[in-house]
Amino acid sequence: MTDFSKKITDIASGIADGALNASVPRRSLLKGTAGILAAGVFPAVHSAEPIVLRYLGTAVNQDKAIGEKFEKDTGIKIQYVAVTTDDVTKRAVTAPNSFDLIDTEYFSLKKIVPTGNLKGIDTKRIKNADKITSLFTTGKVAGKLVGDQGTAPKKVIYLEGEKSKVFAKAPTQFMSLIPTTYNADTLGIRPDLIKRPIDSWAELLNPEFKGKAAILNIPSIGIMDAAMVVEAMGLYKYPDKGNMTKKEIDLTIKTLIEAKKAGQFRSLWKDFNESVNLMASGEVVIQSMWSPAVTAVRTKGIACNFQPLKEGYRAWAAGFGLPATLSGRKLDGAYEFINWFLDGWAGAYLNRQGYYSAVLDTAKSKMEAYEWAYWMEGKAATQDIKSPNGDVLAKAGAVRDGGSYEARMGGIACWNAVMDENNYMVQKWNEFVAA
Amino acid sequence: MNTSVAPTLSAVTPEPGRSMAAWWQATPLTLVFVVFFLIPLALILMVSFWDFNEYALLPDFTFKNYISVFDGCGNTTDMCVTFKTYLSTFKFSFLVWLITLVIGFTVSYFLAFYVRSSGVQTLLFVLCTIPFWTSNVIRMISWMPLLGRNGLVNQTLVGMGLVNTPIEWLLFSDFSVVLAFVHLYTMFMIVPIFNSMMRIDRSLIEAANDSGASAWQTLWNVIVPLSRTGIIIGSIFVITIVMGDFVTIGVMGGQQIASVGKIIQVQTSYLQFPLAAANAVILLSLVLMIIWALTRLVDIRKEL
User: Fold this and answer.
1) Each residue's pLDDT tens digit, A231-286
2) Does A92 touch chain B (CB under 8 A)?
3) Is CATH 3.40.190.10 correct for A3-176+316-342?
4) Distance CA A313, CA A306 (A)
5) Do domains A3-176+316-342 and A186-312+411-434 have the same CATH topology?
6) What is the pTM of this model?
7) How far apart are the first and last CA of chain B?
8) Which InterPro entries match (chain A) (predicted)?
9) What ipTM does this complex have?
10) Using an 8 Å Cβ cutoff, are A73 and A33 in contact?
11) Which of A68, A213, A217, A220 has the fewest CB atoms within 10 Å of its CB?
């Protein structure tokens, strides 16, 4: 899930602008109130010149509305720096002074933490630290362990100290990233063009969809999807899909190359928009897909399912990190932002976009009961479900694909990963593209 | 204009008091060239010999990166990725070069010799550039609704009963890649060829006619040789652009067609800078060789 991307924000902010204009009186009233509150509650912040936090990340969480709301609440300004997942990692490694707050995926940590460019986050300063969902801290959903193949957050979430370059085996006071959003990905399908139930990853390479399938062309994620397919086809069972040996990589790529030579793929896709366009135009009827992309196809009035599969989901998670050089008021501001982010408003906002928030209790308190029932409990919507921007995402009576939070996150099979043999994998992936 | 430039170029003998001024005049461009081209290039060359791991570049002197670029290329049964990639890149370069040359030459010929009024000439020439007022990517993407499975072309063909099922190879294929390239870069052929043609002394063509040459003979023996500079300059533009491209091939080829540029891009996005640098050095040397070969065919400085 890289450039999860600009389009989302573009579309979102466009619609947000529309919504804003429509409800100006109420908004400006809120703004006024928030201003008074902010002035009263955070006098220390206002006494000095305003803090500006440079927020480096992909566009997933970089929502204009979130930044504006935070500034209204606290007076701290968020300056979004939106790049792709790969570029977030690249900048964290090569230019750690170019941001004050990083929003990156857990799998990137294997590359970033050994450089010492990240500061351990002191959980004592995070108000809701102990309420962070158990999926991150212990790898459990509703008390049951979920799949931990790949870079599961629980493996990399704790550091040995504030200035540590290694991950801690057991929980400590210092976290590498404070989780923001996460989700579980699966195949997207066009039910109107396939016309039969799909229940396995193996269908991606089913010759029935020759010339009408697509796969993600971000090697480290695409290979995980491919591995799900290889296992589903019964070709091989990986000890860890997220950390393959050279032989396993060869096998996986060989399977992909054979399918490609047989004309299975219509296209490969790399960013959010490409996947939406491929699906919406009917060039492709089955492909690995991200849940908001499915939503985007649907808002065009085209049937598209985020299809739950019997082998489970490939999960991803992102979180906030602090650069090692951050100090003083900016550091305080960054902590304040993280605390604010976990406090519910942002969580509810993200939940309504189809992601999941890191602290569920606080998000729940900011959502309507019927919204919570639809998004998190897998119940049929009792009234129309709207996105944060006011678009209707689902009509009354609809049920969310994949069901409840527990059903979906409980069905995780593996996590996005960086393998030990990453260099070899990228080289082999290029071979697949060139085949 | 050419007549005035040529003599000054040949007068290389330094005149007293002029040499210092010439150095000063050359300094700004030289500095820009050194800072933004030579130094980065030297860095790329240096890094291509470095070692690397997941998150850091390790200064070293190793041929590892170059060896890994040609990994498996000794295998005769199945071509290695690098050769395959270069082969496909060369294929596109050649096809695009050939098509843009034919179209570019024809359009220039029409503009230069058939359009009599210079006002109309300018107007038509500006008309040629209009598509270039929008960005590359937009011009490329606009082909998609036209060529897609449910696109305009297929709808028309199916509607007219010419085909039963939509034609699949219109989009995400070699065809669509070449089409987009031709659409994007024919202009780079037209401009220099038109420029050369405009400088051909019309009396030469009259002389050819008077000597009884057929239209074809005039074209082949007079116009083509005299437009040679334009053709070579246009070819250099088109070939170098296509050799390094990864956006057009990516978008129009459905990300399924390899190009050298694409491989370099993937490697940089995974922090494999030394590998990418090695690939870039190889690509650069190949392109330089092509340009060198092309410039053997014409002395550009003399002809300009």
Assistant:
1) 999 999 999 999 999 999 999 999 999 999 999 999 999 888 888 989 999 999 99
2) no
3) yes
4) 11
5) yes
6) 0.79
7) 9
8) SBP
9) 0.77
10) no
11) A68
